[in-house]
What we know:
Elements: H1 2-10, H2 13-35, H3 38-55, H4 65-100, H5 102-120, H6 124-135, H7 140-147, H8 151-171, H9 178-188, H10 197-209, H11 213-222, H12 226-240, H13 243-287, H14 296-336, E1 340-352, E2 356-363, E3 369-378, E4 384-394, H15 396-401, E5 413-414, E6 418-420, H16 422-434, E7 438-442, E8 445-449, E9 454-457, E10 460-463, E11 469-472, E12 475-482, E13 488-500
Parallel strand pairs: 1-5
Antiparallel strand pairs: 1-13, 2-3, 2-6, 3-4, 4-7, 4-8, 9-12, 10-11, 12-13
Helix pairs in contact: 1-2, 2-3, 2-4, 3-4, 3-11, 5-8, 5-9, 6-7, 6-8, 7-8, 8-9, 12-13, 12-14, 13-14
Amino acid sequence: MTLVREYAQSNSEQAFATVVSRHINLVYSVALRQVRDPHLAEEITQGVFILLARKAKSLNPKTILSGWLCRTARYVSADTLKTQRRRQFREQESHMQSILNESDSDAWRQIAPLLDEALNCLGEKEHNAVVLRFFEGKDLRQVGASLGMREDAARMRVNRGLERLRAFFSKRGVTLSAAAVAGAVAANSVQAAPVGLATAITAAALCGSTTTTAVIALTKSITMTALQKTLVTATVAVLAGAGIYEAQRGAQLRDEIQTLQQQQAQQIQQLQRERDEATKRLASMTDDGGNRTGNSSELLQLRGEVTRLRKEAEALAADAKEAKDSQSGMMQIMSNTPPIRTFFATAMTTTAWNQAIVTGGWKTPSGKRAIVMAKVFPEDNPQQLTIKSYILEYTEDAGSAIGLARFNTDEQSATKATELSADQFEAIRKAADNHEGVEIVAAPAVTTASGRHTEVQTVDMHQTPSGEKYSTGPVVDFVPTIASDGKSVQMMISAHLNYLVQAPQH
């Protein structure tokens, strides 16, 4: 904290650099445990120290700096993961709605051009209630808590806002029920922002709000070059994505690297030409003894220009070498990381309590089949429920023997779900325990609130021969909504199953 106070009082770059060097391993380790992604952990580490630079003057001198850094790293990591998950879910939800709910899509096309004008006509309380309920997906209890009212009052406020929206649309020739308006707005009103936009905005905001030269110097010292950012982004995509995406991203990456190399080569050539021209002018003026006195100022200026151009050329050459080394390392990671094939399932259905849904039926790289089953149970709290899910793998023979063959598909993605009775669900689950050739890969369960997006994930870490880590394992998203009668549940499910296609080649 003595160094932090020194930096806060005198903007000492040396003091802050010492703080960073002493604690960077601590912060990076906390971030890595939280996000399990080395490149994302680097960005979080950078963000933590930028926050430290901003808050240096306001920290209490008795603050335990290592403890503050640990807590801040956890907060920044949690916010980063939350933002990523929300963005991914919005993208998945938008995709599912465009495929599975054509009627809602038709309704949305009619009301979308009028929606913002209609919202503008609502009172402030109705407007806030509608936004919280349908734009942010909060349940009525959460809406009431946000507005400072009881759940029943929140329900009335939401219903009143919906009715006014319906009347507004009706006057303009769009005749829809309040339920249709609610469904269309909830499914389509919030669209996923372009991938990478949040990162770009964050970087711009940080740069724009940094005013002291010390913070600017620090940011420059710990921020990667544009080319390195491109390579890191491509590497993350290769480690996390499916085989098809890897091939596409690899082609894009090669084009980007080639373009950047050409730009750097052109810049180096231009600087070399300017340097040579300045050198010739300097030599000519040096040889001209008669004009030496009158041109002394220009001689000094040209000497400085030659020195500057020489340094810039050397810096560009170093950048080019660094880019080449980064490219070589990234290509090595690509060659060592085995291809990963991802299977998708996106479906929406309505079931009664204790009924189950099943989706999938994909043929995995090992030759087996895989399905995802989910069953919803009510809780004592009327707005809470428990979801039990099972991810099963089975051979073709075993699937035929116990009636799973009807779920089989040769596609890599699935957009349908089949309802199962409680007895059918239990029979399949027991078969996985007793029948050879049927295996439960994962059985995640979660208790959640009605209308809330919930993600369950099984982490299966691997390591390439070069030491790079990557993860496979199933990820399943649920959005269960209890019907108004309290006897059925509308379930939206999105599953991602990742499989290694082959072992790394040496």
